[in-house]
Amino acid sequence: xxxxxxxxxxxxxxxxxxxxxxxxxxxxxxxxxxxxxxxxxxxxxxxxxxxxxxxxxxxxxxxxxxxxxxxxxxxxxxxxxxxxxxxxxxxxxxxxxxxxxxxxxxxxxxxxxxxxxxxxxxxxxxxxxxxxxxxxxxxxxxxxxxxxxxxxxxxxxxxxxxxxxxxxxxxxxxxxxxxxxxxxxxxxxxxxxxxxxxxxxxxxxxxxxxxxxxxxxxxxxxxxxxxxxxxxxxxxxxxxxxxxxxxxxxxxxxxxxxxxxxxxxxxxxxxxxxxxxxxxxxxxxxxxxxxxxxxxxxxxxxxxxxxxxxxxxxxxxxxxxxxxxxxxxxxxxxxxxxxxxxxxxxxxxxxxxxxxxxxxxxxxxxxxxxxxxxxxxxxxxxxxxxxxxxxxxxxxxxxxxxxxxxxxxxxxxxxx
Length: 416
Ligand code: HAM
Description:
Blueprint: H1 14-31, E1 35-36, E2 42-44, H2 45-52, H3 57-61, E3 65-67, E4 73-76, H4 81-90, E5 100-109, E6 121-130, H5 136-153, E7 159-164, H6 171-184, H7 191-199, H8 213-217, H9 228-243, E8 249-250, E9 264-269, E10 278-284, H10 288-291, E11 299-305, H11 306-315, E12 327-331, H12 334-349, E13 354-355, H13 363-372, E14 377-381, H14 383-388, E15 391-395, E16 401-404, H15 406-415
Parallel strand pairs: 1-5, 7-8, 12-13, 12-14
Antiparallel strand pairs: 2-4, 3-4, 5-6, 6-11, 7-9, 9-10, 10-11, 14-15, 15-16
Helix pairs in contact: 1-5, 5-9
Bound molecules: histidyl-adenosine monophosphate.
Residues 79-81, 110, 112, 117-119, 122, 124, 126, 128, 257-258, 278-283, 285, 301-303, 305, 307-308 line the site of histidyl-adenosine monophosphate.
Keywords: Aminoacyl-tRNA synthetase, ATP-binding, Cytoplasm, Ligase, Nucleotide-binding, Protein biosynthesis
Main location: cytoplasm
Organism: Candidatus Acidiferrum panamense
C-alpha cells in the first residue's frame, strides 16, 4: 500500500522541527493577543463556494468534495478563513470585545499537481483579526507579527510584497477597464487568460506565461484607480509598515487567488523554495462576513504554508537533532527487570529521556544498541548492582564507568 499522491508521512527527527515551528508560532502570536481556534476538517461545500468563489481554481478544480449519506455536499477544507468566519458568526463572537484575534494550525486539502513545496494535504498556520475596524494599524501589526515570527525562526531571504486591490466601490470599475484593455489584445493571449479575461480579469495579472508578460505590464495599474478611501487606507498601511521597521516591496499584480479580498493583499517569499516560493499569503476581507450572512465585519488575516516554511528552514541547514536519549538501561536477570522498570520511571519523571529494552539482552549487545541510538549514558543493571544498591553508569562517549546509588545518579545527570 502507498500513501495517496500528494500526501506524505512526516517522520522524526523532522517532526521535532515542526513542533518547534508551531511552538514558536504559539509564543509569538500569544504575545500579540491571539488565541487558538480549532476547526472542523470538513464543512458544507457551499461555505467554500460562497467565500472563496465558484470561479477560483481552488473551488472549481481543487476541492475534495463528496456527497454525504444524507445527500448534503461536504468538502475537505482547502483553507481556514471561511471556517473562521463561519465560527465567528455561529459562535456569536461579535458579542466579544473587538477585534477578535484568532490563530489555527492544521491540514488543508487541495487537489493540485504535486511538486516540491506543493502537496494535496498541506499544513497552514493561519491568523485572523475579526471585527474592530479597517484601521491600517491592524494590517500593520498583523504583518509585523508574521515577520517577527519568521525572524525568530531564523528564516532567510524573506521578502514581503504588498498591494491594494480596492473595495466594492472602486474595484468593479477597474475590473471593467482592465477587461476592456485585455479584450484589445485578446488574440495575443493564451486560452487561460482569454477565459479569465471574461470570468475574472484580475487573475490574468497572475499569469506566469513568458509571452504574456509584456502585454500585462502595459495594463492599467489599480493603484491609479483606487477610490479616495482605499487610496488613503493603502497609504496608511505603508506608513504603518515603515513605523514598524518592516521592509516591503509593492507589486501591483498581487491579486491573490481567492475572491474574498478587498484593499490590502500581501505575500511573503523565502529562500530555497524554487517556483513554489510563497510561504505566506493574506490580506483584508471586509465583505466576507456579510456574504456569509453575518453582520458587517471588517477583517484581515494571513496563512503561512508550514510545509514550505519547514523546507526553507531545512535548506539553510536548520535541521533538528535526532530524538534525544539520555540513558539506555542495559539490564540482565528477571529479578533485575523490576528495578529497571522502576529506575526508568523515576528518571523519566525527573525529565530524562530513557530507553528500556523490553527483552533481556547480553550486556555487550545492549551497549552496542545504546551506541547506535546515540544514548549518552548506559545504566548497567545486573544482580550485583541490585543487591549492592550501587549502579554502574557508563559514559558512552569515552567509555568511563562509575558506581552510583540512585540518588547520586539523579544528581549526576541533573548537573550536566
Ligand atoms: P493561500 O495563498 O491560498 O491563502 O495559501 C496560503 C499559503 O499556503 C501559501 O502561500 C502557501 O505557502 C500555502 N499553500 C497553499 N497551497 C499549498 C499547497 N498545495 N501545498 C503547500 N502549501 C500550500 C489562503 O489560504 C488564505 N486563507 C490566507 C488568508 C487568511 N487570507 C486571509 N486570511
